[in-house]
């Protein structure tokens, strides 16, 4: 039986397995879709079964915070298309979910879905189901975080109309408006540069060991003498840490300053210490495998 691009596409959507693995499986079982699924599962190539091919990988990130800047919530709600993400009804729903999170003490999405939606009798899940029925697209509340500070402020930043959202918590005795300006600048930095850690103290040893080994092999593969490899690795690792640690990064608005120096200058001006204690960055759809619009054509080209 001839294996078509459409068959490969269908199997890939059902299993999440690689394109060529799907083609091999279908060839092996003479095009029997169910047997191909079983074969991929047996080989450990099938990912978690997908309920449907309708992947919700678009959507919005939104933030809600108290007026005093002591509490803030950030949420990502996904839709299938960017068109729906721009719908006012959808935008309002995401904002209302963020407001619900801010007022709630729930810590998981499952708990949140069973929480009362704003002041209505319906739960968040029921409100979500209603939106799905009205709008006609698969949607889901993917993730959220809530920051609470006793002494200090939480600042937030939304980029590109809700494609990226960032919260930054700062611990300090100051209550100055300049603190929020600093917080927003740091949040913009995080949105743009996506650091993995706040400071070098936060970097886990597994990451250090892993990167050290890679850099060591790179240097050896470049033919560098063994006696200078260690020094090279230290230098390269140091450069890498400056890229992945927020406080070590050059400040995007003024590259002559590091973010750490920016924080210290603001702290000096306000006459108190400031510690960036927590950061979260949500980017819509990150980590979700998105369907290609012309996937069948893409497969056909690959198979040829």
Automatic annotation (TrEMBL):
It is found in: Cytoplasm. CDD domains: UBA_EF-Ts. Keywords: Cytoplasm, Elongation factor, Protein biosynthesis. Residues 81-84 are annotated as: Involved in Mg(2+) ion dislocation from EF-Tu. The keyword Methyltransferase does not apply. One of its GO terms (molecular function) is translation elongation factor activity. Its main location: cytoplasm. GO terms for cellular component: cytoplasm. Residues 72-286 form the Translation elongation factor EFTs/EF1B dimerisation domain. InterPro entries: EF-Ts_dimer_sf (IPR036402), Transl_elong_EFTs/EF1B (IPR001816), Transl_elong_EFTs/EF1B_dimer (IPR014039), Transl_elong_Ts_CS (IPR018101), UBA-like_sf (IPR009060). Transmembrane segments: none annotated. Belongs to the EF-Ts family. NCBIfam families: tsf. Associates with the EF-Tu.GDP complex and induces the exchange of GDP to GTP. It remains bound to the aminoacyl-tRNA.EF-Tu.GTP complex up to the GTP hydrolysis stage on the ribosome. This is Elongation factor Ts. The lineage of its organism: Bacteria, Bacillati, Bacillota, Clostridia, Peptostreptococcales. The gene is tsf.
């Amino acid at each position: 039986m001839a294996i078509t691009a459409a068959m490969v596409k269908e199997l890939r959507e059902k299993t999440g397995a690689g394109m060529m693995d799907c083609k091999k499986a279908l060839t092996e079982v003479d095009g029997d879709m169910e047997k191909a699924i079983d074969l991929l599962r047996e080989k450990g190539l099938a990912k978690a079964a997908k309920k449907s091919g309708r992947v919700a990988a678009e959507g919005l990130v939104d933030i809600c915070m108290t007026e005093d800047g002591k509490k803030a919530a950030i949420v990502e709600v996904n839709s299938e298309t960017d068109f729906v993400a721009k719908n006012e009804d959808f935008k309002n729903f995401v904002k209302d979910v963020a407001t619900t999170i801010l007022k709630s003490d729930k810590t998981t999405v499952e708990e949140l879905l069973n929480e009362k939606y704003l002041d209505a009798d319906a739960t968040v899940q029921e409100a979500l189901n209603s939106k799905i029925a009205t709008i006609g697209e698969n949607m889901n509340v993917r993730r959220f975080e809530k920051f609470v500070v006793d002494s200090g402020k939480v600042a937030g930043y939304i980029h590109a109309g809700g494609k990226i959202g960032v919260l930054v918590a700062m611990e300090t005795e100051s209550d100055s408006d300049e603190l929020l300006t600093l917080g927003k600048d740091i949040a913009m930095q995080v949105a743009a540069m996506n650091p993995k850690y706040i400071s070098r103290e936060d970097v886990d040893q597994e990451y250090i060991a892993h990167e050290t080994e890679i850099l060591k092999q790179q240097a050896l593969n470049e033919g560098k003498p063994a006696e200078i490899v260690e020094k090279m690795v230290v230098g390269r690792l140091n450069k890498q840490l400056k890229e992945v640690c927020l406080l070590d990064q050059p400040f995007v608005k003024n590259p002559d300053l590091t973010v750490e120096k920016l924080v210290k200058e603001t702290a000096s001006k306000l006459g108190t210490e400031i510690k960036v204690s927590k950061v979260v960055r949500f980017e819509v759809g990150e980590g979700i495998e998105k369907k290609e619009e012309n996937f069948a054509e893409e497969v056909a080209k690959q198979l040829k």
